[in-house]
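The passage that follows is intended for readers who have already worked through the single-chain material. We present the inputs for a multi-component assembly, then the predicted structure in tokenized form, and finally a short commentary. You are encouraged to pause after the input and sketch how you expect the pieces to fit together before reading on.
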Amino acid sequence: MKKKLLHIIPLWFVALACYAQEETPLPLTYQSFLIGGGTTSTYDSYLSPLKYSGMNIGLLGERMKTPRRWKGRIATQHFFNLELADTKNPSGSAQSYVGSLEYDYGLYYRLNPVRNIQLYTGLQGNLSAGVIYNLRNTNNPANAKVGANLNLSAMAIYAFQIKRQPIRLRYQMNVPVVGALFSPEFGQSYYEIGLGDESQLIYPAAWHNRLTIRNILSVEIPLKACTLRITGMNRLYQTHLNDLKTQILSNAVYVGISKYFHTVSGKQTDKNKYRYVF
Amino acid sequence: MFFNHRTITIGRRWRFPSVRIAGFAACLCLLVSCMEIEEYDNTPRGNFEALWQILDEHYCFFEYKGIDWNRVYRDYSKRIHNQMGHESFFLLLDEMLQELKDGHVNLSSAFDVGRYWKWFEDYPANYRQELIDAYLGTDYHIAGGLRYKILNDNVGYVRYADFSSAIGESGLDYVIDKLSLCSGIIIDVRNNGGGLLTNSNKLAARFFNEKTQVGYIQHKTGKGHNDFSKPYPTYVKPSTRLRFQKPVVVLTNRKCYSATNDFVNAMRYAPNVLLLGDKTGGGSGLPFSSELPNGWSVRFSACPMYDKDMQQIEFGIDPDRAVSLSEADAEKGKDTLIETARQLLGKSQ
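Having made your guess, compare it with the prediction:
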């Protein structure tokens, strides 16, 4: 009898563990990848007193998850955006290239205030690197745009159907609060920076000297194998530092796909319900 | 480990309730910039204002040259009217820029380039290309932008005509190795109007044995005429490759400008170096570029560079030994500057 009990007790633990696992929803990872293009206008007083405008192309990638340890109330987001633009001055006599790469990592708290509507609100860590390269200029041909920020971010998702076709609308907005920003001084050349001039190059950034806002509106339509995603993105990068002003405004439409998936490690394979896959 | 992960794709089934199309308030914030950006009309008046403003905020030698830029505005503003033709307008703006007396100031359009060349036009050339060609002959060597040969009195002659022409470190190794048995070398940078400062530094580094301060550089920190940063010292660090240890004579004339002026300034502080010829043309302001609404571009001195004693070298550097090209020598096919340098290097042997 004693022996039997010894066998039964571990079985109970196993059973409880299995029950617990079944109760915890499997956290799926949302991932999307998009490609797109649109228009860009730039102004950088370090390079020119004129506004340049032209076309851009870009890539956008996003990954979101609601990790199990936070019971679905907290979502994580990885977001990256690469944008390249070819712009010209108003007379068309000079050209400049604009490149920017941004990465965000966000943590969001999820709310479901109304049926069919989800709200996410949270904070993002943002790293950005970019450059405006003016082909006409000689000793001031380019200006780098590098920064790290803490963003406030919010998302609203609304799901509905049109003729039995489910559709999801999502709007996200990011506004940086504090951070750090690279900038040369008013007339400082990159040649002098290269010599090792100890002038300050990194500055604290907040709303008084930097305003960067990103608005993203997405429509997602599920198809058979994946989900079609169409996104409109509006991005403003604006700084006013050392008497230097920069403004980059871009509007783009991106098209791509999104998917949900779950990744299991080799070790986990034996312990969860996907053990049967391999 | 990558292979320890399996990816299972799960088709997403949305279970939304029955059709209830509600208006989703997608508040895509239309962004209104609160930053004021000065915009200029593409008219003669607008272009004039833009040019005056660009220089007012960025030009670096107003104080040193004693230029009253507001007086310039008053004088030229009344001559501007919107019915001006392109060419007359260009000439007027160029005339205004001449007030700066700066070879680094240029106004460029599709049909002309405005320039100030009095830094050499008002002085003797002290240079004849045919004489240089005769000294080099046809059996000279070429290493990047350098042309070099050993003259028959065992003096090395190196001609560098343009600091925009690349010079590689291996090329410099070959030049120095080849000329190392000479009694000394002549570096002829006459009529070299400048180019890349990095080339100036790379060449000078072959003649220093210790890290040596050769000057200062400053930049503007604001729009005021006297808003300058603390001067930052500039150095020549000795090359870690072959370095020339024997006497060197650097030949100069009024057409040594910009990066060449910087090279000549650095060589002043190198051991065993003598500057010979005429005063250099100057051009110590690192130029920046900008543009006007009509598409014309403007270049101007933006960052002043000084010598080691914080003295301006914008109007040139005096040689250690002033020598002019004599007509009598030139008629005999001799370059007075090269011949004087050869005598000096011969004596030092």
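Commentary: Residues 1-33 of chain B have pLDDT under 50 and may be disordered. Chain B touches chain A through 65 residues (CB under 8 Å). How closely did your sketch match?
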